[in-house]
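Predict the 3D structure for this chain.
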Amino acid sequence: MTLIELMIGMMLGVFLLGGVLQVFASSRQTYRVHDATSRMQESGRMALEVISRDIRNADYWGCASDASNATNNLDTAGSGYVDFTTGGIGGTENSGGAPGTDTLILRGGVDSGLGVEPPYGPQASANVKVAAGNGLEQDDIVFVADCSGADIFQITNANPDGAGVLVHNTGYGSPGNYNVTNPGCPGSNAHCLSKIYGADASVYRTQEISYRIGDGSEGQPALFRNGLELLDGIENFQILYGVDTDPVGTAGFGIANFYVPADQVADMEQVISIRFAIVTRSYDDNLTGGIAQNYSLFGTNITAADNRLRQVYSATVAVRNRL
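Done. Predicted structure below.
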């Protein structure tokens, strides 16, 4: 072979190698985009499912129907105190763990109601009797309710599951029980319930669920549920509250008249649905071909500050216990 033939062969090899490298780089970038998209879809769908389920179940208070009918016997000075009587829905606007993000708070009862069993009373300060094997534990916060009222308290005895007895003494646990204004027996007997509950009453666990955005363990923004990291790769959480101003029994009742942010809701008790949106983002940068991505969040156009991929997921969920 002559020198010219060798040079021509080398040049052809370089061209072929360049083509192979170009195909490899393109395939690698396509793989990165597809992998990031699948991760965002997984996080987005999971977030929609979990948050929607909690919204649907919020503000359940058994036969009492409304938290305003309940007497909160938890100690206001104790750590972990929750003012359940403020209602089952709350939140803040632009004050989440990350700038410009919202928070959502959902409260209510969970689990099937345990019927109150005899003996009833004879005083409002007496222990509440339920069936053994109830699954309740010491320190659980529960509420007992009938159709005329409810009481919220913390279980203080060590074996409520086996004994079928729910003790609610003062001076134990966090937040503990202490309510000197309780109508059952105010003053020194601050652990009283507001009334004696009979066979028409049931006992439920209570829960308070909070959602916010914060920094995750992997250095990525994440969605937190009750202070625990739930899903990473979620950088924004926005909420609108569906307010129904029509009186109960009128033609428009049960349909939201408008959707507004938390700071524009005059009365959270009028909220019957929640519209929320989350923004997921890719772990890796440089996935948009050097062009910053534009996306819309509740009608606001946003231009991303980097070249990560982003997707918006939204849902409108009815608060079933208010309809």
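Helices lie at 3-56, 160-163.
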